Amino acid sequence: MKQMNRDMHYLQLLSASFPTIAAAATEIINLEAILNLPKGTEHFLADLHGESQAFQHVLKNASGNIRRKVSELFKGDIREAERRELCTLIYYPEEKLELIKAADEDIDDWYHITIHRLVAVCRDVSSKYTRSKVRKSLPEEFAYIIEELLHERTDDIDKAAYVSVIVDSIISTGRADDFIIAICNVIQRLSIDQLHILGDIYDRGAGAHIILDTLRQYHSWDIQWGNHDMLWMGAAAGNNACICNVLRLSLRYANLATLEEGYGINLVPLATFAMDTYGDDPCNEFMPRLLTGNTLDEKTMRLTAQMHKAISIIQFKKEAQIFHRRPEWHMEGRCLLEHIDYERGVCTIDGTEYEMSSCHFPTIDPQHPEELTPEEYQLMEKLHHSFRVCEKLQKHVKMLLSHGCMYSICNQNLLFHASCPLNEDGSLKEVELYKGERYSGHELMHNIGMMVRAAFENDTDRELRLYARDYFLYLWCGVDSPLFDKSKMATFERYFLTDKTTYKEKKGFYFQLRDNEQVCDQILDAFGVTGDNRHIINGHVPVHASKGENPIKANGKLMVIDGGFSEAYHNETGIAGYTLVYHSRGFQLVQHEPFMNAQDAIQRGLDIKSTTQLVELSAHRMLVADTDKGTELRSQIADLRELLYAYRHGILKEKNKI
Length: 658
Fold this sequence. Notes:
The chain is an alpha/beta fold and 658 residues long.
């Protein structure tokens, strides 16, 4: 009886949207038709690390998806140079138009040819969507015109003149430029149905804030949080150790654009403190790593190194305070300031003494090494305030919370940034989260996500909220963190110890076993991912393509798409990242070479050089019916059929009938 009452209540609610037999039947027809459209294209990116120009270019060209469609449409009809120029126009319409108008003497003729070609491309990319969805993607001022052109063909003799007059009128009224820009943006939008970002928008590159501003305007995207995202989220939540880490990484690469220009974080107090405290210190270990195009004079290099050291020492102190406050994390062994013999210049780790490269610590009291000096305390108060009141940073973090989670399952693909903690035998590892609660697999991921959100919710129990704020540090560097999963983070050792064997960070069992198909199947089973063509898709660990490493692992069950988007990895990996495209015919893995800049792409028609590898092709063209959306639509159709039954058998009365 209760079930029947619930069903009736649901049908009554459904009848508000579909008040008549005709309305319900029309929706069933519509949904049944949608099931038979081709599957929308999904785009997977990982580890963007602030490389905003490369990200925007990959977004504009859909990892070569637009170029592929242009080649298929016009192969044999127009030359390669013209196809390349058409692609560049689609990616950068405003900038490319200026160059063309300055060079082309017969611009009206160019307008005619180009508009027809753009309409053909737009028709192709829109063919897998309903008219309603395409209509919603059109800019208001050109919606009617674009829709007419998309659905009328010049090879129809009766409509050829009609189409021709529309194009003539666009040009004669001086609207050609605006129309071209509008339709190029529509092509970009319709080329990708869903964007998946597998973490790490932040750090190293200069444009993390630009990436997030771009995503704010993007039609459909999700993110599986990465360790670097978590660091900035922790900083925004007020975790001082995370704030120190964010500043330290920015100073390490002499990359302060996101902090200063993006978020307006005032670094003058840090600079003043660093000059006063480390003015006589050469700070050799803290000289920044300069990326291409980033040059600093000697004075700025020295100041950057002093700021770098100042915030690093405060970081080690703040981390130690949290590790002592949370002994259940078993991280107190990382409180290395307590294990330094300041007179002899050695540090003892696991019973072994290691020589230090320098031992100049004017702000450390050997008896109480984790205590901040009054000056350090005042500095942290100012920095803490800057991060907490930064409106733009808080908005960006809210975006990450609303669009993100620790993992996602989409169309038989399990997405997470780094790892799923495992035992040595490949079984899921139980990890303690809060007050002795232990979880593994998807329960661990889910509850970590809840913990992250608890740090930002004012109605959360105060004790839990404080723990959640501390927990950002564990997610950044904890042994069993799904975002780290290593034996230690050897930041201190790399700065201060001469023995490079101490730099070794042993990877967790997930990274050791992820090439094992059986282990991947066990993980997929545990997360409830079913189907014959299921996969795990990760980022986090750069793929060393130059050394022959294959991003496809476990007999195709796992794909790693961090090939090193960040310039800092290019020498190490030999490439500039992988992206993945999943369209109606299967998976394509795209390997990119470094992207120089957008200006090059616009002026010379250069695209990101890439190699496309077919990972998996479907035996038939996949339809919406084969996707998660298809499952959802079939459920809606079943509910609507129940509503039809209720109307036709008098269980519910139709509304609005005359």
